[in-house]
Design goal:
Layout: E1 14-24, E2 31-38, E3 42-47, E4 56-61, E5 71-82, E6 88-96
Antiparallel strand pairs: 1-2, 1-4, 2-3, 3-6, 4-5, 5-6
């Protein structure tokens, strides 16, 4: 049986919409964005500012309940796309948890 190689990801991508707090490259200024998707090795966030590829971003996602622990990761921005004038999609790989 032939394999379908159209999807070359190592992990399943989950589409979701939740708030994330993030800081760029060790900055003390914390910002808020919206997670658009998450996988085992990557994340995409809609942010209000452009971020250069290669930049490290610390991301914190607080769950709505106490059953799930918070997610604290560091992502390396791989791609930054302008969405609607004031919004940017930051796509990156998770480098540390």
């Amino acid at each position: 049986m032939a394999k379908d190689y159209s999807e070359k990801r190592n992990f399943f991508r989950m589409n979701l919409e939740c708030i994330a707090e993030y800081t760029i490259n060790g900055s003390a200024q914390q910002k808020s964005g919206t997670v658009s998707d998450l996988s085992g090795d990557g994340i995409s966030i809609v942010a209000d500012q452009a971020v250069e590829p290669g930049t490290e971003v610390c991301v914190s996602i607080q769950p709505e309940n106490n059953v799930t622990p918070p997610l604290e990761i560091v992502m390396e921005v791989l791609r930054c796309e302008e969405k609607d004038g004031n919004c940017y999609l930051l796509a990156g790989s998770i480098t540390r948890q």
